[in-house]
Amino acid sequence: MLPIVTATGREACSQAALIADPIDDETAAGLAQVFKALGDPVRLRLVSLIGARQGGEVCVCDLTSAFDLTQPTISHHLKILRAAGLIDSERRGTWVYYRLVPAALERMATLLSVATG
User: Kind and range of the H or E element at 113?
Assistant: First the structure.
């Protein structure tokens, strides 16, 4: 799983230095897992659907109905997103609710903005 680091102020500036120097093997492996997870159109769309939901979370029942895929296939994609640290879930009764992990998305955004900036 991608290590989640939240940073503000001075710490955020030092995180931007991640790209100023080559990243180490462990960091590269964690980031590759995240980008690999997002490299599938279904998973990218799942992240978008979860993030766009008012209140910040969505029931798995709403996610499965948005695709022409079986429930086990959607569960597989959600499992990969969870393993990459991009989403988290909570079981409530018989349903599971998913939400984005903001720190993981912020870290990717910082990495990409520095890399392209």
Answer: helix 102-116
Cα angle: 6, vertex 57, 72; to 5 degrees: 110
Q: Does domain 10-116 have CATH number 3.40.50.1970?
A: no
Strand partners, 88: 99
Q: Which residue has the tokens 């079981």?
A: 91
Please give the model's pTM, rounded to 2 decimal places: 0.76
Q: Which residue in the block uniquely carries the two structure tokens 């910040």? A: 56
H/E run at residue 100: strand 95-100
Give the strand order in the sheet containing 95-100: 57-59, 95-100, 87-92
For the segment 38-83, what is each residue's pLDDT rounded down to a tens digit? 999 999 999 999 999 988 899 998 999 999 999 999 999 999 999 9
The phi-psi region of residue 2 (left if phi > 0; otherwise alpha if psi is between -120 and 50; otherwise beta) is beta
